[in-house]
Specification:
Layout lengths: L1 E5 L1 H19 L6 H4 L2 E5 L3 H11 L4 H11 L1 H4 L8 E4 L13
Parallel strand pairs: 1-2, 2-3
């Protein structure tokens, strides 16, 4: 199964995949989402920009925000949850999505 998202849809795809991984971990890996996912393919993803803007909101809350993010994003906590390639296709002229490599 390929999980695909464009622009803000890539953020939704990423969040959904993390949610399914969390649910699988809580339920004894019944759905087998990691085994069934062959690729996360994003187009023009603003994931790094979203993280950047959230860090600008409040420097005092950064540590707490990072801990909360780790609690719901297993793909950034441990590479055991990245069993598939993650490819982001973007244009260098895209000011939102250009300039990052997954």
């Amino acid at each position: 199964m390929a999980i695909v998202g464009h622009s803000l849809g890539s953020v939704i795809a990423y969040d959904t995949l993390n949610g399914l991984i969390n649910e699988d971990e809580r339920n004894g890996r019944k759905t087998g989402i990691l085994k069934r996912t062959s690729i996360l393919l994003t187009f023009g993803s603003p994931l790094d920009k979203i993280a950047f803007f959230f860090t600008l909101q409040s420097k005092n809350a950064l540590h707490i925000r990072e801990l909360l993010a780790e609690a719901v994003q297993p793909m950034i906590v441990d590479y055991q949850y990245r069993t598939f390639p993650w490819v982001n296709v973007y244009s260098p002229n895209d000011i939102i999505a250009a300039g990052w490599i997954l």
